[in-house]
Design a protein that fits this description.
350 residues, alpha+beta, single chain, D-Amino Acid Oxidase, Chain A, domain 2, elongated, 8 helices, FAD/NAD(P)-binding domain, six-stranded mixed sheet
C-alpha cells in the first residue's frame, strides 16, 4: 500500500505512538480515523516515566532511529500546540548499566551539586546528558490527537476492533460494535494489544507485555530540577511539584507489589534529597510495555496479508515522534525509511 495521501487510513490505538502516527499521517493529507478500545492514553502511555532518553548499552540495531528521537520531538514542539518537553538534562550514577549517548559528559561533585542542590550526598562523579528531557505523555497524546483533528482526523474511543474485513489476502477495514469501517490501510499501534490484533489475521508477532512500576507523589516543589537515575532512585519532578518515579518490576511477591514499592521508593527519596517535608503517594501501578522478543521495535507492513502496517515498540514514548515521522513518510510516499530497516515484522517469519 503506497501513495496513501487522501486515502483512508485507520490507526488502531490512541496512545502516544498511535497519536503521533495519526498526526503525521493527517498532516500529510491522509484521511485518518483513530480507533481506541478504551480512552485516550489509557494504556501504558498513562504509566510511563516518559524520559526522552536516547542512551543505550552495547551494540544498538536501531542506533539511526534512536539518534533522531530528540530532533523529532523538538520539531513536533514547533508544530503541535500544547506539546512541550522539559529539556532539563539527566544525571546518571551508580546504575552500572553501561548506557551512554554521544552527548554525555562526566561531571564532578561540585557541578553535580550545582545542578541538583537538594541531593544530600552528591556522588564524586556522574554522567550528565544535557540534551535529554521528559514530558507529560498523556498531555502530549491529547495534543497530538487535537492536532490530528485539526487536519481532519476522526477519533473514536471506546470502540474495540472485533474483526478485520478481508477480501482475498487484503485487509479492507475493521468490524466494530458500531459497524464496519472501510479503509485503504490499517495501522496496528495498540501497544501490548498489537500481537492479538495480528493474530486475528493469522500472523504471529512475538510481542510480550513487559511490566514496570510507575509511581507518582505529591511533594514540595523544587526538589529535583532535572532527571536523576541512580542506584537509589529514578525520579523527576513536574512543574506543579508532582514527583514521578519508576522502578523495575521484580516479581509478584507482596513486598514487590506497587504499594510496597512506593513506600520503599519514598524512603529512598527521603534519604537522598533534602527538603522532603512531605511525600504523599498519589499513584502506584504496573504499566505493561510492548516488548518484542528481540527488543527491537516492530514497524512496517505485515507479511502474508496486504493493507496492514504495524507499529509496536519499547521505548514507545522515546520513539513516538521519530517513528511517527518516518512511518508516515514511507506510508504516504512509498519509499522505505532506512532507519526502520531493522524493525520490519517480516523478520519473525523467516
Amino acid at each position: 500500500m503506497h501513495h496513501a495521501a487522501s486515502k483512508h487510513i485507520i490507526v488502531i490505538g490512541a496512545g502516544i505512538v498511535g497519536a503521533s502516527l495519526a498526526y503525521h499521517l493527517a498532516s500529510k493529507g491522509a484521511r485518518v480515523t483513530v480507533i481506541e478500545a478504551h480512552g485516550i492514553a489509557s494504556g501504558v502511555t498513562a504509566t510511563s516515566f516518559a524520559w526522552i532518553n536516547t542512551s543505550h548499552a552495547g551494540s544498538d540495531p536501531i542506533a539511526p532511529l534512536r539518534a533522531g528521537a530528540i530532533a523529532a520531538y523538538r520539531q513536533l514542539e514547533t508544530q503541535v500546540p500544547g506539546l512541550a518537553v522539559r529539556w532539563t538534562g539527566a544525571l546518571s550514577y551508580g546504575t552500572q548499566d553501561g548506557r551512554v549517548s554521544p552527548s554525555c559528559v562526566l561531571l564532578d561533585k561540585a557541578k553535580i551539586a550545582a545542578l541538583e542542590p537538594q541531593l544530600r550526598h552528591p556522588p564524586e562523579q556522574a554522567l550528565y546528558e544535557p540534551e535529554q528531557g521528559a514530558l507529560d505523555a498523556v498531555a502530549a497524546t491529547h495534543a497530538l490527537l487535537d492536532a490530528a483533528r485539526h487536519h481532519g482526523a476522526t477519533i473514536r474511543t471506546h470502540t474495540p476492533v472485533l474483526a478485520f474485513s478481508v477480501r482475498g489476502t487484503t485487509v479492507t477495514g475493521v468490524e466494530t460494535p458500531n459497524g464496519a469501517i472501510d479503509a485503504d490501510l490499517v495501522v496496528l499501534a495498540a501497544g501490548t494489544g498489537t500481537a492479538a490484533l495480528a493474530q486475528k489475521l493469522g500472523v504471529h508477532l512475538p510481542i510480550a507485555a513487559s511490566p514496570a512500576i510507575f509511581m507518582r507523589y505529591q511533594a514540595p516543589p523544587g526538589l529535583v530540577r532535572g532527571i536523576i537515575s541512580s542506584h537509589a532512585m529514578e525520579v523527576r519532578q513536574a512543574d506543579d511539584g508532582t514527583l514521578l518515579a519508576a522502578e523495575d518490576y521484580m516479581d509478584d511477591a507482596p513486598d514487590n507489589q506497587p504499594a510496597a514499592m512506593a513506600q520503599r521508593t519514598a524512603g529512598a527519596i527521603h534519604g537522598e534529597l533534602e527538603g522532603v517535608d512531605f511525600l504523599a503517594p498519589e499513584l502506584a501501578c504496573v504499566g505493561l510495555r510492548p516488548m518484542p522478543v528481540d527488543g527491537v521495535p516492530v514497524v512496517g507492513y505485515l507479511p502474508q496479508v496486504d493493507g496492514v502496517y504495524v507499529c509496536a515498540m519499547h521505548p514507545g514514548v522515546v520513539l513516538a515522534a521519530i517513528v511517527g515521522q518516518l512511518a508516515s513518510a514511507e506510508i504516504i510516499g512509498g519509499e522505505p525509511a532506512s532507519a526502520l530497516s531493522a524493525c520490519r515484522p517480516a523478520r519473525f517469519q523467516a
